[in-house]
Amino acid sequence: MMTASYIDELHESFHTDIVYRSEDIPLECTPRPSEMEETLHGVMKLNGLIIRSLEEIAGRGANAVTYRAGKKFGHEIAKYFQKRDDVEEALHELSDLLRGQYTFEVWKPEDKENFIIEEDGQTFIYLVFHDCIVRQTLRRNGQEQGGPLCQTLFGYVVGAIEEITGRRAKLEIVHTGPNACLKKLILK
Amino acid sequence: MDIRVDTDACVGCGLCVKDCPMDVYELRDGVSVPVKPKNCMGCLSCHEICPAQALEHRGIYPARRHYIDMRVCEMLNRVI
Question: What is the CATH number of the domain that holds B75?
Answer without folding.
Answer: 3.30.70.20
